[in-house]
Amino acid sequence: RGAMASISLVLISAVALYLWHTFPAKRVWLLASLVIVSVSAVMLWKTNSLAGIFKKESSGGLSARIDYWKGTWKMIDQYPLLGVGPGNFGNSYARFMNENALEKIKDPHNFALELWSSAGIIALLLFAMVIVILFQRLVMHHENESAEQGYSDPIPPWVCYLGGMLGLLIAFVLRVEYKPPSDLIQESIGALLRTAGWFIAIGVLENLHINKFWMRRILLAGLIAMLLNLCVSGSIIFASVMVPFWAVAALAWSTTFSGSTIRGIKPAWVFPVVAGVTGIFMVGVFLPLANAFTLGTQAIQNGQLIATSPPDRKNDSKLVKLRTLVLSPLQQASVLEPQNPRWNLLLGNWYPAAFFEATRIGDSQALVFGNAALQELDRAAKSNRESIEPALVKAQIRSLYAESNKTQAVNQYLDAAQALRLALPFDPFEVKLHFQLANLLWKAYLADAKRPNRTELRTEAILHAKEAFRLDTIFANSPRNLTDRQRAIINTIILGKDPPGP
Fold first, then answer.
1. What is the biggest distance separating any 2 CA atoms in the chain, rounded to whole angstroms?
2. Which residues contact 17 (CB under 8 A, 6 or more apart)?
3. I need a surface site. Which of 16, 28, 128, 403 has the fewest CB within 10 A?
4. Residue 270 has what pLDDT?
């Protein structure tokens, strides 16, 4: 909807600009038409004929976006200079959002707020400065020759052609690496069609003799449309969004140079520098990340196959497969990409599978696997302090340990509850987080009738149960709502009864 609105606005402006320059004698009628269109738009707004745009939905009306912006402004108020860091908005937003928000978002649906909240005020000012310089150059530039003579001879950009072909080839290789062999032909045909489509489009555009005056304004209109769309949508940090934006900006900027200026550029010295930087990036960054991703993806696939496979004749064969085909590749991925908490989180998920399998067959390494799971989750939490996912996984693992060892059940439940307590400030309005914490505290309360602080556990469990019930009543048919069974457990905790059976 944002794209449609922005494109419509730019089209109206482009038509008005064309008529203004083409028919100077009709400018009075043009102004009158613009006034009528503006008044009609205001009347539609005031009469709620556009109410669908402003309705509050999880899919995102204007009212929902205003909620997003209010929460984002709270984040900016706390981190004004440097922001929370690129890619960290989704983890940080939960503790600033309104308690009645229908969804947790990954970006604020506004490019200025996204830049400020993610990278700080300096990044926003630099972006604004570049945009102002670009627009000033495009709007204020005047051709030496008349607009009717301002055509440019096509210059074959063979380097760009080769670069585009190489990019498409690399994209195809990276996609195929993680696809099953049965999809190879389909992916090859898709890559061929994409390549042909791009070459046809580039060839057509290259041979269009467009007046420089109008080409510059057409590209400027596209930039304005994209910026207007980014005012109500995201994400500006995605390459798929900003690469086309800067490509159009570069094309628009190039229309302000004469043909002799372009032919006078000798960029041969640039290619060794670009090749060197690219080589360093490929060896030092890209290849380790790609290898880590390959190892992690293969480990997940192996784990799923092992988990669903029937028992083998050898008693320890499943444990051996878990260690060699799942845990070992994930450990290698963690070494290749030590700053990515995803690998620690996956290890924390798969070590318990090895723990239970080792316990089943009586392997002496069972306790080692159990402790390793908790250590990996601690590392994941340290790498991404504002994410609640490590705490949720740790609570789940502690609960499983409690069910498998009744003598240590109370301590395991309390450790699980402590993990959720530490995560709660980062997502204070998550219904299911309060529910899980109340459920764990209640289980610890019931597991040991002689515990000295038993009354405190009961009081805290009821407190979180009531908070979960209160938050649950705010939403209607939302993914954040509790299930019927979870509501039944909440009621038993509030009433002081034993939880219902499975």
1. 95
2. 217
3. 28
4. 62
**Neighbouring residues of 332: CB distance < 8 A, sequence distance ≥ 6:** 292, 295
Q: What is the pLDDT of residues 417-475, one digit of tens each?
A: 988 888 888 888 888 889 989 999 998 888 877 777 788 888 999 999 999 888 888 87
Confidence of residue 170 (pLDDT cuts 50, 70, 90): low
CA end-to-end distance (rounded Å), the chain: 45
The span from the CA of 273 to the CA of 134, in Å, is 26
Q: How big is the chain, counted in residues?
A: 502
83-136, pLDDT tens digit by residue? 887 777 877 887 888 777 767 788 888 888 888 888 889 988 988 998 888 888
CA distance 380 to 376: 6
Residue with tokens 């999809």: 183
HEC per residue, 338-368: CCCHHHHHHHHHHHHHHHHHHHHHCCCCHHH
Location of each CATH 1.25.40 domain in the chain: 386-502
Q: In Å, how far from its chain's centre is CA 24?
A: 49
CA 107 to centroid of chain Cα atoms = 7
What span, in angstroms and rounded, lies between the C-alpha atoms of 484 and 492? Answer: 13
Instruction: Find the mean pLDDT for residues 250-267.
Output: 61
**Residues 248 and 227 sit within 8 Å (Cβ to Cβ):** no
CA 364 to chain centre: 42
Asked if 409 and 402 count as a contact pair (C-beta separation under 8 A), the reply is: yes
What confidence score (pLDDT) does residue 396 get?
82
Residue 325 neighbours by CB under 8 Å, 6+ apart:
299, 302, 303, 306
Q: Regarding the domain delimited by 386-502, which CATH topology (the fold level of the hierarchy) does it fall under?
A: 1.25.40
Q: What would the two tokens of residue 21 be?
A: 């320059």
User: What tokens appear for 280 in the block?
Assistant: 């360093």
153: buried, middle or exposed (CB in 10 Å: 19+, 13-18, 0-12)?
A: exposed
CA distance to 264, 270, 315, 352, 372, per residue, from 363 (Å): 74, 61, 10, 14, 15
pLDDT for position 463: 92
Query: Comparing C-alpha atoms, which of 343, 435, 348, 426 is closest to residue 387?
Result: 426
Tokens of 430: 């998550």
Q: What HEC string does 75-132 produce?
A: HHHHCCCCCCCCCCHHHHHCCCCCCCCCCCCCCCCCHHHHHHHHHCHHHHHHHHHHHH
Task: Give buried/exposed letters for 345-384 (b at 16+ CB in 10 A, else e).
Answer: bbbbbbbbbbbbbbbeeebeebeebbebbbebbebbbebb
pLDDT band at 366 (very low <50, low <70, confident <90, very high): confident
